[in-house]
Amino acid sequence: MSCHVNCSERPPQLSPDNDITGPGVITNYVGSAGLAVFLILVYFFMVYDPARDPFDNHEMSQRPYQANPIDEMVTRKVRSCFKWSLVAIGDLQLITGFSILIGGAIQLDCGLTVYEWQVIVRLAWFSCLTHLSCLMALRNYLHTHTFGRTWRLVAMGILASMLIVGLLPTANYIDLLHSISSEYAMCHLAIRPSSGIALWSMVLPILVIALSFVSRVIKLHKTLSVELWGKLRTRASVNARSILLVVYNRCSTRGLKQRLSFFLVYRPLFAAFFVARLVFAAWSSMFVEGLWLLIAFIWGLLQLMGALNDGSKELGLWTMPGSHTRTDWTFGQVVSLLLLAAPLISLLEYLDHSP
């Protein structure tokens, strides 16, 4: 059955699709993303070893002492459990991200509303950010499984591109959400000049997704991360320190002019060098990765709740649970909710078959 949207007609009263904005779908995306955030944070504080080379193919590195066999066995088991859990939940995020974006794009010609498209891109945001963080946590695993790394990066690149394209028209939707949220999304796809909150609500997530994906591509390849980026960083650091040393020697001699130059030239240069070192260290830090993931998750959750609230104040779709009763649960919602069990099933399967 073909669909057609007439943008000149007055949009009908808002009647959201429960397979997009229903409680089952919302719970699946937010719940699976929250589970991934929890696993990655626990992985960092309990499993991650910052002294271990992420590109080391050997499970065990040389230690100056003999490890306790019981501790070694438990640690190996816990690391493997976290690894396979992150693999499962990361792949699940890819599937759910593609499903919500492709499904939404197909329904654009069938009267998908501005309200529903805003919800779609916010849900896809959770899929992108959690899979990007799973890629970082699985850095060692993906180094030894090059095919898995390749197809996941390609799929992530496609998903990130789709999300960026989907976010571009959202700057047009902010004002509509506060007025006529039942407007057809198809009629407002053209990018128009925007400013203020509407512009930054579109630009900020696009920059985060794009820069995060590029950084994952670099960090997951030893050639780019160590041999290229590492050498460039080392050379830049050596040159910067040489310049600082020359400036220090010229400014450290006695005299009012030299002392003034020390405060006005050397100290700002040293501060810039220190900040640059701090930024580069944070760029490769797993702690900063976990902190970024937590902040991005909270920000996405606030954006989703804002879209649900602003787009449906007249109906109370989010604040009044009566609009989504038990009888409104459709097949898509039930399937979405059951998908939350997929990582747990994979974990139980691993525990059942691993020695």
From TrEMBL:
<keyword id="KW-0472">Membrane</keyword>
<feature type="transmembrane region" description="Helical">
    <location>
        <begin position="290"/>
        <end position="308"/>
    </location>
</feature>
<feature type="transmembrane region" description="Helical">
    <location>
        <begin position="86"/>
        <end position="107"/>
    </location>
</feature>
<feature type="transmembrane region" description="Helical">
    <location>
        <begin position="329"/>
        <end position="348"/>
    </location>
</feature>
<feature type="transmembrane region" description="Helical">
    <location>
        <begin position="150"/>
        <end position="174"/>
    </location>
</feature>
<dbReference type="InterPro" id="IPR053018">
    <property type="entry name" value="Elsinochrome_Biosynth-Asso"/>
</dbReference>
<feature type="transmembrane region" description="Helical">
    <location>
        <begin position="194"/>
        <end position="214"/>
    </location>
</feature>
<keyword id="KW-0812">Transmembrane</keyword>
<feature type="transmembrane region" description="Helical">
    <location>
        <begin position="264"/>
        <end position="284"/>
    </location>
</feature>
<protein>
    <submittedName>
        <fullName>Uncharacterized protein</fullName>
    </submittedName>
</protein>
<keyword id="KW-1133">Transmembrane helix</keyword>
<feature type="transmembrane region" description="Helical">
    <location>
        <begin position="119"/>
        <end position="138"/>
    </location>
</feature>
<feature type="transmembrane region" description="Helical">
    <location>
        <begin position="26"/>
        <end position="48"/>
    </location>
</feature>
